[in-house]
Each structure stands twice: as structure tokens, then as C-alpha cells.
Fold this sequence. Notes:
Blueprint: H1 3-6, E1 15-18, H2 41-55, E2 60-64, H3 73-82, E3 86-91, H4 110-130, E4 134-138, E5 142-143, H5 151-166, E6 174-178, E7 188-189, H6 194-204, E8 208-213, H7 223-232, E9 236-241, H8 258-270, E10 281-284, H9 293-312, H10 316-324, H11 328-339, H12 344-353, H13 360-367, H14 369-376
Parallel strand pairs: 1-2, 1-10, 2-3, 3-4, 4-6, 6-8, 8-9, 9-10
Antiparallel strand pairs: 5-7
Helix pairs in contact: 2-9, 4-5, 5-6, 7-8, 8-9, 10-11
Amino acid sequence: MEFNQIADQLEHQAIELPSWAFGNSGTRFRVFSTPGTPRDPYEKIADAAQVHAHTGLAPTVALHIPWDTVDDYAQLASYAGELGVGLGTINSNTFQDEDYKFGSLCSHDRAVRQKAIDHHRACIEVMNATGSRDLKIWLADGSNYPGQADIGARQDRLAESLATIYAELSDDQRLVLEYKFFEPAFYHTDVPDWGTAYAQVSALGERAVVCLDTGHHAPGTNIEFIVAQLLRLGKLGSFDFNSRFYADDDLIVGAADPFQLFRIMHEVITNGGYGPQSPVAFMLDQCHNIEDKVPGQIRSVLNVQEATAKALLVDREALHNAQQANDVLGANAVLMDAYHTDVRADLAQWRQDRGLPGDPMKAFADSGYLERISADRVGGQQAGWGA
Ligand code: PSV
Ligand code: MN
């Protein structure tokens, strides 16, 4: 396959940026700040708009409530529109309140469950104001010690809580349930894996789907298999892309294992998850602990584009024929040929043909934006986890 045969298909790529990627973040040891870090959701959106302006790849920004609380969400949406981006997924947060120490939607305390449900109601109101399609739910619920919790009863309460929230959504809105096998709970989490997420969303209905965060799997997990399976079941709602070396590292997607990202995009494309009709939302879920945030996000979306281009280059007919002929090495060679193709010069040209900078990293560095926000954003409280 030649690059010009796939160039048009790259137009369909849209990668949603997480507002929290522009705030400060770190580990339990230290949160470092960077000059110019946004102080409010408006400044986060202004930074996100820079990523889209330089790449054409990131037309929407996901919000996290309450981190991105504003008085007027419609006004925030129109501000985003003025900068050339839109507001996307609304992420709920039931992990930073004392009341949720022993769980939220799964808690055995009815009042705590109700509080968590009410928070999701508030998130749906935000969605109504912003025009967002997706409510993404990631739960920190779980337990730390065997015997601490009644695991089955918690699943029942989760099903009941999710059904209550799902009933509040309008016909064009979706509930997206994200799984994670550990952290902050260390013995069990209430939505540890794709199977549990699938079982829970299947019981809700058609507009309930699964979010696959690439960092939320045990080492060695064949993530692309899960992608293929969820797509054939019609339940892959979204990705949270990031890289992990050890656990949920939230590093730049494609940094740790570009081959895995390619394999994931290959399964996405093979199983109908890519293109204008695809219901899959491609999001980043990353933190930039030590690198500058805006270029960190630019690097990330470019990495996804590069992996996508290579995956589109797979000669699917040749692959199919080799598979049918049990040509093990031939089939593998078809895939590896695409992976080893250097698409960087073609992508630079692709961008220039569309009025974008050939080298977005350099163009952003040359733009003086970082220097400007460092000088302008003085005083106030820099955003970070919890703000
Ligand atoms: C949890 O690790 C998670 O990946 C969830 O996606 C959250 O939405 C995100 O982090 C930020 O809280
Ligand atoms: Mn995530």
C-alpha cells in the first residue's frame, strides 16, 4: 500500500484531549509546576486549542467535574468554539471526597450511594449545557483486604446505581464505564476488567458502552484482543490512550510501546472502529509530570496519527490471503511491513497540504505561546489534580 492510498482516511481522525493534562500533576512524592500552567478551565481550553491549531487532530476537550466547574457551561462551550474546539466527554469524580472512603456507587451506605448518583445527575446537567454526548464513569471503588467487602453485593449495588444514572440520560447521550484492575484499591476494584464493565453496561442498554484505558491492564495483557472483542460485541465506546512502563503511568501514548499502539489501531481498523461512522471516541488520558504540557499533548496526538497511518497501510487483502493459506510468516510479514514503514515525511507533507505546519512540535516552539502564557499567567492558583 502507498501512503497516497490512505491519505484521505487520515482526515477522519479526531483525538479528544483531557483538560487535566494541562494542569500540574505528579506522584505522591511531588507535584512539580510549570510556568504558565492554567488557573481555570478557560485557560486549559486555550492550551488545548493550541494542540488542535498545530495538528488539526484534536477538535474536542474532555472536562472533569468538579475540577472544571464554571458558572456557565454554555459560555465555556462558546469560548471553546471561538478558539476552534468543542467540549467533549464529561468525566465524573467520586474519588476525592471523604464520604467516598469506602466507595461511591457500590457503597453499602445508601446516603453515600445517593450522593454519588446525585453527582452524576449534576454531570448530566453539564452535558446538557455543553452538548456533550458521553458521561464517562471511572470508579475508585474497591477494597484493600480479603474479607473487607461483600464483592457480589457491591456488584448488585453498582448495577442499581448505574441503572439509575442511565435512566437520566437523553436518547443521544451515552454512559461509558471505565475499568481498572487496581489503584487506589489494592485487593479488588469493583470494575476491574473489560468483562465486568461489559456485563454491567450490557444490563443497562444500547447506549451504555465500555472505555478501554490502555494503562489499566496487567503487564503482558493482549490489549488488542480486548479491542477486537469489544468491537465485535458493539460495546467499545472509547479509548483513554496513554503509555505505561510499570502500572498506570499515564505517560505519552506511543512512548513506551509504539508497536502495541500500532497493533491496537490495526484491530480498530480491521473491526470497523475507525472512520466517520465509528462510535468510538479516541481520547487521551495522560499527565505531564515533568515535561511541558502543550508540547506533550502535541507529541501524543502525533504518535496516535503515526500509528494510525501505519495501521491503515496494512495490505488487508494480502493479510487475509496469507491467513487463509495458513502462511504464518507471510501474514506476520504483511503486518510488519506496514509497521516498519517510515511515514513521518509523508505525514509532514499531508499536514502541509492542509495548511498545517509540517513539524507541529517546532511550529509550536517557534510560536512563542509558552513564553507568552508564562509571562501572562501570573498569580492565582495553578490547576492540578483536585482543581
Ligand atoms: C483513573 O486512573 C483515570 O484513568 C480515569 O480515567 C479518570 O477519568 C482519569 O484517571 C482522571 O481522573
Ligand atoms: Mn482513564
